[in-house]
Write a structure and sequence with these properties.
The complex is a heterodimer.
Chain A: E1 2-7, E2 9-11, E3 33-35, H1 37-53, E4 56-63, H2 67-77, E5 81-88, H3 94-107, E6 116-121, H4 132-140, E7 144-154, E8 157-163, E9 169-174, E10 178-182, H5 194-203, E11 207-209, E12 221-226, E13 235-236, H6 241-254
Parallel strand pairs in A: 1-4, 1-6, 4-5, 5-11, 6-10, 7-10
Antiparallel strand pairs in A: 2-3, 7-8, 8-9
Helix pairs in contact in A: 2-5, 3-4
Chain B: E1 5-8, E2 11-12, E3 15-16, H1 18-34, E4 38-43, E5 59-63, H2 73-86, E6 91-95, H3 103-111, E7 115-125, E8 128-135, E9 140-146, E10 151-155, E11 172-175, E12 185-191, E13 205-209, H4 216-229, E14 232-235, H5 237-241, E15 262-266, H6 272-278, E16 283-288, H7 295-298, E17 301-304, H8 307-322
Helix pairs in contact in B: 2-3, 4-8
């Protein structure tokens, strides 16, 4: 299979997020970036498919802070090629990003063959415009399914599981080429030691690609970003872990549990 | 008169999902300010008897083509575009749910309409609709303006009152004859969830664990507390994805919705996907190291602390109390 995985960088929400002075973007000074969680699962699913059915895994990302490390990590995990498109991901909505990726696949070096499967994360935490995979599939005229949690291959087709709610899953058959939005891989994403990533940084290369998209279309009129006004706030239990535990016990007693 | 608002009703296997009523209620509220008619669209050959439940809509469009029975986004988008054009509805509401995921971007690509995702509040400002969305796991809000009320809005479940979208009077129904090509994504079957050893929807005490629990071994601590309290352990997505607990213990968007008397959340940040599943709990007690974690905005009680430090002491105290 000709597997492509699209990786997107998002702010690490473990850090505090602040709004920049323009009121329309995040303050990047203390921002740390990481690869979007579902994208990591998309990569894992691609690597599993390659191990089972052969082929190549190409990881592709747009220019973004700390993206090189993510691409090298993907190579260390077993991806065959890493490509970075020079278009800046920052401030690019999902629609615009899809236009860049569509150009990448239409004009090269991305190639849609009868064996091509494009995997992206099902959704990202900043998908204000919706899902990249769906925009891309529609722009390329390829079949699409999101919230995918398992991909297998049988008789030349893909057998794909999609999550609904309450643990219910649906099984779908999809012909190649196709685009899938992965929510979780069939196994947890593999771990790769830092030493191996370092070694790959010395031996492998990220290929840089320019894609001919003039200023990508901006569709949404963002008025402002802000910290949500909080409707309520929990009654805070303060103190040492010991004191907190004691106060939780009191609450449990009040609720009739103890 | 203002152009109609079109709501894509969500039905799954013969049941209307609550999000449908939430969207109809939201549409009625917007219509109250603009005078726009509210239309609903129902898809699927088994949808006919469901039209009567959509009384909050002024009219229900029905496309009962069997090719729409299976939840395939591109096929639903085809029907939605046809009806949207026929009804001249420039404002379309879709549920921000797993079932409907993908329909919005496909419709946006085909129509050129802008799309706003993760919407939790709406207000009318002159000729524009301002949508408030939550981003970054609920940590940042965004206000987006749709000029001339044109756009596709994906509404987050649980953000709008469902009661406002229920209506008794039978709505006018218009059948739309439409042949939808069999989609390239072929639905085969549903796979029922494996029933776990414990039904977490029936517990009066749940101990929920999230990323902050750090290792599989630590899940055992939560298990010990749950046992002492006579409850069960459940988890948010990252813990399930790691394989530390079975799928039958997942709470949230893809998992189960629970409403115990007490929900203890350890190391759970409270991202919207998880909150969706716990919001109806009677009492939520959250323990998290991040004082800014969104879970503290909705929980009844909270403590900024390391779950791994609180858990062992709490287990001891609960056991002592129980004798």
């Amino acid at each position: 299979m000709n597997l492509y995985v699209l990786l997107k960088m998002v702010p690490d929400t473990v850090e505090e997020l602040n709004v920049a002075a323009d009121g329309k973007s995040l303050d990047t000074e203390f921002l740390r970036f990481k690869v979007s969680d579902p994208d990591e699962h998309a990569l894992e699913q691609a690597l599993i498919l390659k191990e089972k059915h052969g082929g190549t895994v190409t990881v592709v990302a747009l220019e973004a802070p700390e993206v090189d490390e993510v691409l090298f990590t993907a190579l260390a995990k077993g991806a065959d090629r890493a490509l970075k498109i020079t278009t800046d991901q920052t401030r690019l909505g999902a629609f615009a990003a899809a236009q860049v990726y569509a150009a990448f696949f239409k004009a090269g070096p991305g190639q849609i063959t009868p064996e091509t499967l494009i995997l992206a994360g099902s959704q990202a935490i900043d998908d204000l415009e919706g899902e990249l995979a769906a925009y891309l599939a529609e722009t390329l005229g390829l079949p699409y399914l999101g919230v995918v949690c398992n991909v297998a291959r049988a008789n030349g087709k893909l057998i794909v599981l999609k999550e609904f709610a309450g643990g219910l899953r649906g099984q779908f058959e999809i012909g190649l080429p196709a685009v899938l939005g992965v929510q979780s891989a069939e196994k947890p994403p593999r771990y790769v030691p830092v030493a191996k990533v370092r070694a790959v940084m010395k031996s492998a290369k990220i290929e840089t690609v320019e894609v001919g998209v003039s200023e990508p279309a901006v569709r949404l009129q963002l008025e402002r970003l802000y910290k949500p006004e909080v409707a309520g706030r929990a009654q805070m239990l303060e103190g040492t872990p010991e004191e907190i535990a004691e106060k939780i016990v009191e609450v449990l007693a009040k609720q009739g549990i103890l | 008169m203002a152009k109609p608002i079109l709501v894509l009703a969500e039905q799954h296997r013969g049941e209307i999902a609550d999000i449908t009523f939430e969207m109809l209620g939201a549409a009625r509220a917007v219509a109250g300010a603009t005078g726009a008619p509210v239309f609903a669209l129902l898809l699927g050959s088994d949808a006919v008897p469901l039209t009567a439940r959509l009384g909050a809509a002024d009219k229900v469009f029905l496309v009962d083509t069997p090719t729409l029975d299976a939840p395939v986004p591109s096929a639903a988008a085809t029907a939605l575009k046809t009806v949207q054009e026929q009804a001249q509805a420039d404002l379309v509401f879709i549920g921000c749910t797993n079932i409907s995921l993908g329909i919005g971007p496909i419709l946006a690509t085909r129509t050129g309409l802008p799309l706003v995702n993760f919407c939790r509040a709406l207000r009318v400002e002159g000729n524009a609709l301002v949508c408030t969305s939550q981003l970054f796991g609920g940590k940042i809000a965004a206000d987006v303006k749709l000029p001339d009320m044109r756009g596709i809005v994906c509404l987050y479940p649980g953000a709008f009152p469902a009661e406002a979208g229920r209506g008794d009077k039978p709505p006018a129904v218009e059948k739309v004859p439409l042949l939808v090509d069999p989609p390239k994504v072929i639905f085969k079957q549903y796979l029922q969830p494996e029933t776990g050893d414990v039904d977490i929807t029936k517990q009066s005490v749940l101990v929920g664990v999230g990323r902050g629990i750090q290792t599989q071994d630590n899940v055992q601590l939560a298990e010990e507390l749950a046992q002492a309290l006579g409850g069960a352990v459940c988890a948010s997505r990252p813990v399930i994805d790691q394989g530390w607990l079975p799928l039958s213990r997942q709470v949230g968007k893809s998992g189960l919705s629970v409403k115990p008397r007490v929900y203890l959340a350890f190391g759970i940040s409270g991202a919207p996907e998880h909150w969706e599943g716990i919001q109806n709990s009677q009492c939520i007690i959250a323990i998290n190291t991040d004082s800014k974690a969104p879970i503290f905005d909705g929980a009844h009680y909270g403590a900024v602390a390391d779950a791994l430090e609180v858990l062992p002491v709490l287990i001891e105290k609960v056991k002592a109390r129980k004798g």
